[in-house]
C-alpha cells in the first residue's frame, strides 16, 4: 500500500474523529485525577502510586493515539514508518497503564487480606519505588518482545498477556470482595479495636472506589481478547495488516476504557465529593441568611406601620 496519502474511507474518517474527541476529552480529566492522587491523603501511598502509574500510561497512550489519528487522517497510510513507530510507543504506554492498574488491584487485595499490618508496615516510599521499578521492567520486557517477535505472532502474544492480566485481576477482585464481606459481617465484635474498624471502613471505601473501574477494565479486556482471537487466530490476519474495521474497534474500545477510568476515578474521589458538597452547603447557608434577613425586616416593617 502506498504511504504517500491517507488510505481511509468515510467510515475510517468518522471513527477516527469519534476516537479523537474521546481522547481529547480525557486529557483534562486525567490532570484532575493526578491532582486528586496528590491531594487525597486518606488513600494508601502505594495505592496512589499504582493509580498514578496507570494514569501516566493512559495519558501517554492517549496523546500518541491523537497523533496517530491526526497523521492517518491527514496524509499517511497504515504502513507508513512513522505510524508503525508510534504504534510501538502506543503499545508501551498501554502496557505501562495495564501493569499500573494490575498493581493497584493486587495492592488493594493484599491490603484487604493483611489489613492493619500492611497499612502500618508498608507505607514507606520504598514500596512505591519498588512498584515503579517493577512496572518499568515489565513494560520494557514486553516492548522488547514486541520489537523482535514475528509479525504473525504478535496477536498471540497480546492475547496471552491480556489473558494473564484478566485472570490475575479476577483473582484479586474475588479476594477483595470475599474478605471485605467477611470482615463487614463481623464489624460489631466487641473485641475489635476502633482502629481496626476504621481501617475496615477505609478498605471498603477504597474497594468501592476501585471495583467499578476494575469491572469495566475486565470487560474491555475480554472484548479485546475475543476480537484479537477472531482476527489473529480464526481469520489469520496479523493486527498490523488488518484493513477491516477491527483496528478501529480496538482503538475506540481502549479510548472508552481510558475515558471511563478518568471519569470514574475523578467523580468518585472524596476530594471531588467534598468540593461539590461544600458548594451546596455554602449555597444553603447564603440562602438561609437571605431568608432570615427577609423575615426579620418584614416583621420590623409590620411593627413600624
Per-chain topology:
Layout: H1 10-39, H2 45-74, H3 81-113, H4 117-121, H5 125-148, H6 154-185, H7 194-234, H8 246-267, H9 270-304
Helix pairs in contact: 1-2, 1-8, 2-3, 2-5, 2-8, 3-5, 3-6, 3-7, 6-7, 7-8
Describe the protein in words:
By secondary structure, the chain is mainly α. It has a single domain (19-293), classed as Rhodopsin 7-helix transmembrane proteins (Rhopdopsin 7-helix transmembrane proteins, Up-down Bundle), CATH 1.20.1070. It contains nine helices and no strands. The chain has helices spanning 10-39, 45-74, 81-113, 117-121, 125-148, 154-185, 194-234, 246-267, 270-304. Helix 2 runs antiparallel to helix 8 (246-267) and helix 3 runs antiparallel to helix 5. The radius of gyration is 25 Å and the shape is globular. Residues 282-286 have low confidence and may be disordered. InterPro entries: 7TM_GPCR_serpentine_rcpt_Sre, Serpentine_rcpt_epsilon. This is G protein-coupled receptor. Belongs to the nematode receptor-like protein sre family. Pfam families: Sre. The chain crosses the membrane at residues 12-37, 49-69, 89-110, 122-148, 154-177, 209-232, 252-273.
Q: Beta-sheet strand percentage?
A: under 5%
User: CATH homologous superfamily name?
Assistant: Rhodopsin 7-helix transmembrane proteins
Mean pLDDT: 77
In the residues, how many domains can be counted? 1
Distance between the termini: 91 Å
Using only C-alpha atoms, the radius of gyration works out to: 25 Å
Looking at the structure, what is the overall shape? globular
Approximately how much helix is present in the residues?
Answer: over 70%
The major β-sheet equals:
none
CATH topology: Rhopdopsin 7-helix transmembrane proteins
- CATH architecture annotation name: Up-down Bundle
The top-level CATH class is: Mainly Alpha
Uncertain runs are: 282-286
Oligomer: single chain
Helix/strand-derived category reads mainly alpha
Q: Count of DSSP E strands?
A: 0
Order of helices and strands: HHHHHHHHH
The number of helical elements comes to 9
